[in-house]
From TrEMBL:
Keyword match Zinc: yes
Naturally occurring in which organism (per UniProt): Klenkia marina
UniProt superkingdom: Bacteria
Keyword presence, Zinc-finger: no
One GO molecular-function entry: hydrolase activity, acting on carbon-nitrogen (but not peptide) bonds, in linear amides
BP terms from Gene Ontology: glycoside metabolic process
The name this protein goes by in its record: N-acetylglucosaminyl deacetylase, LmbE family
Keywords carried by this UniProt record: Zinc
């Protein structure tokens, strides 16, 4: 596997994770997030939707969004994250709009992260489930918000004029679920917290037989570790790192 031409920063002060749905960050990146918070990095989540189109039972739709917000808040706590932003877009219907770019750029300027984590805008043809349309749309909108919107003081001038949000340059973007992943994070020591975070999403995982989720996700992480040359028995999450500064 080809390594990034420029390695990621060894430590950053602040990370913003921008994902489409509650649980997206936990399936793909919660082990990595835990390594960052353990190292003293502040991590903030931004969820574009409330996940109100998810679930596997007859829970009334008007209850699903609040339930999933609560589940994601509980999941975040397992990996050291306490600040969450919610944009309130409709689950399953996220489109590439200027409003979405502006709303993500607003959060970037509020949080002022050194690194942004989001989903890849590229489709994974060998694992199509990772390429939900909302995932790809949010990944592309986030990249557009990182460059040029958040750093350009003349983009969405109302953010500065009306809200006092100064332009901000993000140095790195980490893309999860990417067909171009070239960097793996060993998450063996934080995997239990990742599983605890996943278990918080009761509306999404409670229908599975006990142990099935752990077996599936654990196998996925073991394969990722092997693909990226980690020793046998290790667990990893993989990303495509893009340097933007």
């Amino acid at each position: 596997m080809t390594a990034p031409a420029q390695p990621p920063a060894e430590h950053v002060d602040r990370v913003l994770c921008v994902l489409a749905h509650p649980d997206d960050v936990d399936f793909g990146s919660a082990g990595t997030v835990a390594t960052w918070t353990d190292a003293g990095t502040e991590v903030v989540y931004c969820l574009v939707t409330d996940g109100d189109a998810g679930g596997f039972d007859d829970t009334p739709r008007e209850q699903m969004g609040p339930l999933r917000r609560a589940e994601q808040t509980a999941a975040a706590a397992h990996v050291g994250v306490t600040q969450l932003h919610w944009l309130g877009y409709p689950d399953g219907r996220v489109e590439q709009t200027l409003d979405l770019r502006r709303d993500i750029a607003r959060v970037i300027r509020q949080v002022r992260p050194d690194r942004v984590l989001t989903t890849s805008p590229e489709r994974m043809w060998d694992r199509v489930g990772a390429s939900h349309p909302d995932h790809m749309t949010v990944g592309e909108a986030t990249l557009r918000a990182v460059y040029p919107d958040a750093r350009n003081p003349f983009a969405f001038p109302e953010l500065l004029a009306d809200e006092g949000l100064e332009a901000w340059t993000v140095s790195e973007v980490w893309l999860s679920a990417s067909p171009r992943a070239q960097h793996a994070v060993d998450v063996t020591d934080t995997a239990e917290r990742k599983f605890a975070a996943l278990g918080s999403h009761v509306t999404q995982v409670a229908h599975q037989p006990e142990g099935q989720l752990r077996e599936f996700v654990g196998g996925w992480m073991r394969q990722t570790a092997r693909t990226h040359g980690l020793p046998d028995g290790r667990l990893a999450e993989a990303f495509h790192i893009v340097h933007t500064a």
